[in-house]
Amino acid sequence: MFWRQSYRKRLSNKGDPGKIRSMKKQPKKLISFNIRAATALTFIIFITAVIASAFRKKEYDPTSAVRFDKINRDSVESAKAFLKVYSVLMSPRCMNCHPAGDVPLQGDDSHLHTMAPKRGIDGKGVYAMKCSNCHQPANTPGLHTPPGNPNWHLPPADMKMVFEGKSAHELAKQLVDPKLNGHKDKKKLIEHAHDGLVLAGWNPGDGRTLPPMSHKEFNKAWLTWLEKGAYAPPKAH
Amino acid sequence: MTKMTLKINGSDHTLEADPNMPLLWAIRDLVGLKGTKYGCGVAQCGACVVHLDGDAIRSCVTKVSRAEGKQVVTIEGLSKNNDHPAQLAWQQLDVPQYGYCHSGQIMSAAVLLREKADPTNQDIDDAMAGNICRCGTYLRIRKAIVLAAELQKKTVKQG
Amino acid sequence: MNNKQVSRRDFLKASAVSGAVFSLGFYLPGSANNAEIISVAEAENYGIELNAWIHIETSGKVTIFSHRSEMGQGVYQAIPQIIAEELEVNLADIHVVFAKGNLKRYGSQNTGGSSTIREFYKILLNLGASAREMLLQAAAGSWGVSKSECYAQGGYVFHKPSGRIESPKRLHYGQLVEAASKLTPPKDYVLKKRSEYKLVGKPLLRLDTPFKTNGTAVFGMDKVLPGMLYAAVERNPRLRGKVKSFDDSQTWKIPGIKHVIKVKMVVFDTYREGIAVVADSTWAAMQGKKALKIEWDDSGFEHLNSEEIYKRQNLALQTQEGLSFKSQGEASEIISASANKIDVVYETPYQYHGCMEPMNCTAYYQEDKLEIWGPTQNPDMVQEYISKDMNIAKEKIIVNLTFLGGGFGRKSFMDYPHEAAVISRQIKAPVQVVWTREDDATQGPFRPGISYRCEGVIKDGKIDAFKYRMAGQNNMHWLTGKKDAVNGSTSEGFLKPYYETIKNLSIRDVPFATPIPTMWWRSVYASTNGFAFESFMDELAADAGRDPLDFRRAHLNDERLHLLIDKMENVSGWKDKKKGEGYGTAITECFSTTVGEVVKVSRQADGSIKIDQVWVVMDCGWYVNPDTIRAQIEGSIVMGLGAATMHEVRFIDGKAVDTNFSTYQMPRITDIPPIQIHIMENDEVAGGVGEPALPPFAPALTNAIFDLTGKRIRKLPFSLASV
């Protein structure tokens, strides 16, 4: 039903992908719409009770609804969705900045960044090798030029959030553990799918492959995984 | 074409430039300071390093517009008398061979020396791996940074 | 000290204002061997132009011309260091000026083949000594004493018997200029012994370093002329290609574009065409170049892939005997008859020079006169080709040398100055043509990638027969157009004393050509031959079951080489090899200098090979500056490391595909092994130092890897990460 809503919205934009993209520029709004739709239409009765508690804290917080939603749990669907998520996270566009060591990876073959820049305490590089010395606020045009983002960085030294070398099982566990995921609760996790650097994966600069699915599909899988209980796929994956 | 003012080595330079022009070419062709070098144009080699508000940025991929309102320091402005500790160390150990990359090498080393008074070998690797030297003067660069750190300490003491 | 460009005429004009000037140079009737030292007056009598190597003004200012290009190898330092030794002046008081290109005046100015010192050091010593003697004579004359009572030191002539030690009678060189300039250069003087040297042989600091630490050194691309425009050229990516048509409508939308013109540049016997975009800044020109849409005409020649080139070369080695460079005994017969012969093929890749300063040149053509400013190793060739092609008299082509941001052989070529001259003539303005890194990386000429077939037979622990064939492009074929001549560089790198002990020997060249242009690259053929010769020597030693150094020693009846091998053995701890260590060695000769290297390797936990240490022993005979030599050796090892383990210009459809350092990775500070250097001390004739340490590195490394792992690497480049 959630997706039907979303589909209707897209139709109302006459299928103009530009408009859809422009919506992504306001990720918070989009999320609140999506979540509202999902929660309101699917679990309207249950939600009523939760809304009250959410409002007591601050304001309406749909993510907490997801977190405490027992009815919606579905370990099979959740884990299945995560495998899709995993294929994106392990693509060079995501994994290259979530390396096992302290040097980022580079290129579609995820080789070690050839100038071996170091993570540094804040993830923004060290000395003469700070990320933003080369990585500009936007992509530099041309092949083999530095991709850009105003906030280009690795995870910080005290929260490395390693993807490289992780199985789907390990990565799923890691992503929901606030001690390992940058102290993110589910709300923050949901929002993270629209983080500027995450989105940068879908704007990789000339000559770089895109993640294996669109950001929209990724976001759907991401939400499904979380909504349905954030289950980790079995260890074999 | 946009009119802009760049602060380079402490002086204002007013120029008219395509805001997308890399800072490198603005410095070289419009301002006329030729010490900053073009090596690769894609931030691979480090010959074009200048300081932008103290950071060792690659001027070949940095749009000139990013430098507006910031302090730019080029190799010509690193010291008045060619006597920054890195410059002195480079001279004492005869680091350069053909010397084309060394503007960038010294500008990178200067940031390292500012941020780490006592750089280890690992620090030198971490700071300098972005600068290519085709003459292969790397062993001397390493020695010169250690020497420069010593010279810097003496200067600080005397100063 | 300054590095400004000063023409001799300007210099003399300025000198005329300030007063008299003492000039001494030499006349080159033929080769450097019969140079004759002459004064200004004699030059006028002969009706020739003096090369005026040394100038001393009345102020005492000493100017020395450097006729060779400075590309990091230290000639800017070495020439004054040699002259000052005999002239008796302080190095710090010398001003160095780059001489303009002038074949008649300076002899060949082609800075290649590590030749400057080995060809000119004797002349330079004599020149310094002659000038000193004339100044002594002038002082003695003015004091009315005998010349033998006078001595020169630090730019002064002193009179020994007069005055106290602390204040002897003395005259500054500047005070003697006028009298000395009227004298004839003497013939009867004695050069110093090596033990008396105060400058030569000492690790003196280089004169050009301070310019290179504050951005004041003027490289080619730093030249600015009034009214100068900047050009970038989109050239046909294949050597012989032409322009069919082009669309510059997008180019003209970029602000600052002034001209878009079709240009050509000479590349050996053919032309490469392109479209030049001329603008008011380098950036605008480069943008305009990117916006061009060009249709190329690539008909009439083959478009080869790398695989095809090597397939053909290797097939030629199996099916053709080729031309004999040197044959003695019955190598082929013994090898054919042997059941135990070793028969292997080595492959070396095409390489590009990769100077950090991309190719560039500034030219100004006006009224049948052409002036060029550029980073060139070879002003002679520039004048020769441009004169021929553009129909300008050679003496109307002035070539001004700038500092070179790397040469390595690439800047010994005429293509880029020619193109700049063509553009300047067309647009009637001074122009600086800047190549992008991508242009520089893909357009050649390249070092040829060569395949070698080596065959040998061991008998009683020694080499019974040795046969070596190379198949690869011949630079001289390109330069001379003679496609059927045997490659004279076939044996480059090989130690000639082997000729005495290997009685059955055959060194052959299988001619091979492609449309991809090739030319000199640091250490030239020794850089690839050395890999084949010295890898094979190691294979033969292993086959003979002998220690690789002992095996070489047993085949070399030469005292200098034995001393070199002893030194290598001692400094490297060759005999004390520990478990888990691989030791490899190689010895090659290049430009009259022999270099032996030992490499020690081990395997890392991740399976990669680590180079733990490199030892280099160089025997270059008489030398000027040991620190410059060390620097050149360090650089040669780093370049050799890149050449062996990283670099290969790959061709697809006739085009080089690696466009920048992103896929043609350069060694970085994190890749460099410790290097220990030893220079042999002797009084032998000077050899080159800028290139000879490069060739032995690759085979010493792969031989060390064989020692460690048993795996023989016969194809370069290979990855240290996955041996």
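qc> The longest helix of chain A spans residues 27-42.
qc> done
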